Amino acid sequence: MRQLCLAPHSRGKGPVSFRAKTPHIGIMLSPGLLYEEKRIEALDRHAILDTPPEREYDDVVQLAASLCGVPMALVSLVDRDRQWFKANVGLPGVSETERCISFCTFAIEREELFVVEDAREDARFATNPLVTGAPSLRFYAGAPLQSEDGFLLGTLCVLDSVPRKLTETQRRDLLALKRQVELLLRLRLKVKQTEARNQQLLESSGDAVLLLDEGGAVLELNPVAARLLGGEAGRFLGVPFETLVAPDERETVLRALREVRTHGSARVDNLGLRLHRGERVVMDVAASLQEVGSARRLLLVGHDLTERRRLERQSLQNDRLASMGALAAGIAHEINNPLAFVLSNLNFLHSWREDLERRLAELPGVPEQLQSVLGEAGEVLAESIEGCQRIRDIVRDMRFFSHSSDEAFSPVDVNASLDFALRMASPELKSTARLEKSLDEELPPVLASGGRLSQVFLNLIINAIQAMQPGGPRQHTLCVRTVREGECVRVDISDTGHGIAPEVLPRIFDPFFTTKPAGSGTGLGLSVSHALVEKMGGELRVHSELGRGTTFSLLLPQHARLAEPRPALAS
Questions:
Q1: Which pLDDT score, from 0 to 100, does residue 318 have?
Q2: Which of 198, 443, 449, 514 has its CA 20 to 30 A from that of 58?
Q3: Domain 309-401, what architecture?
């Protein structure tokens, strides 16, 4: 079919004249330029141009051709410089023609039916190449298609290669069918508006949003959902939604999806989604049916409960720690008094034994066996005194640790605080690794909570010990170093353990995050340590290599730099 180009040659405010590049055709359009621009905008809003065939439109043109007794019928949409056929019967292989030779350009100048009974007898079309050449049009009847906001977008038209007239019944039928096409166009626009709302929800929602097809496979998901599921959005497209949840909850999800299809909505609380790394995120999910025409979509909006659960667990853990601290303080007090009596009596017995041994040595004929027994008694007493002194140190440490929650900031000796933490960890450390200490004896003090700083050191030391297990002093070393660095005091705690994977490293300070097996840790130690260091005005850094070990570096401002007193550290 011959293709012609449309060339506008008037851009004023009046009617727009279009001139074909072939000199024998001229077409004048009555709508003004402003109307034409808005009409094109309305057509574009429907997003229908150049879309694949759809059965609903094809059925309409088949019925129109049959009712009007003609071989050709079209749903023709008039674009800026072409007419494009959404549905076509009788013109195989033709998808569009130039607008400058179209009959439909005239049809959309009026709202009523536009009929040309014999194009060869009509001065407007007698020389039109569609009349003088293939398909040799003689008859045309076009019913303009009006958008919901009043713009004429194209036509439902019937055509023939012989002259003819429409009966009144055929006119009514053609107008009735064009109203069906208008309904399809309006329905399409509503679908697009629904899709736009869904897209806006996908992009702007702070919750996880997933759009599923009717079968439950993922069509789209927003960045929040992709982040919570732990991967790129493309990984989940086409994946059945039920495969993303924990196996023991899949039947619950399938039942909820069936309820959405039947009743239009459903809700699942505390739904556990399984991440690709094996972790689990918990959400409350609200689902609704998006149904416009034949399109059915399932919209899922999930509110992440993980952070709330973490905060609840952290609060519970803090309460437990506070209770344990109060219990430790009470136990320490109860132990301290009888321990003082025992230690005093042991020291008395030890002194009495030494005095007795001296007196017996001055006497002649003292049996050798008695001297041996007194020697053994001395060793027993010395060991008992040493054991009681260790108990006394533990009790002192318990009191020190339990009373730290209400301590105000004050000058703290970092080396002393570090030594305390090492003493606390000594039983576990000596069976795991050898200790190397390099402490700067001239370190200035820092302004901090002594108890909380020791808690930080203890957390880091225990983590280091656990990273080196299983092992022993021959295989592993714990290095502890203090040094002045600029106007800060720096503490390095290094282990020779398994190290931390690069993809895990950014999350190690997150509350409740842990790489340990279930039941082996709460995931609070590093999070609490990080928060405490920040409250003290310091910084906690980490460097790790897989298979080679990890170093945590704590930097705290020197006491001299802190001009203003700091408030008490909250428990």
A1: 58
A2: 198
A3: Orthogonal Bundle (1.10)
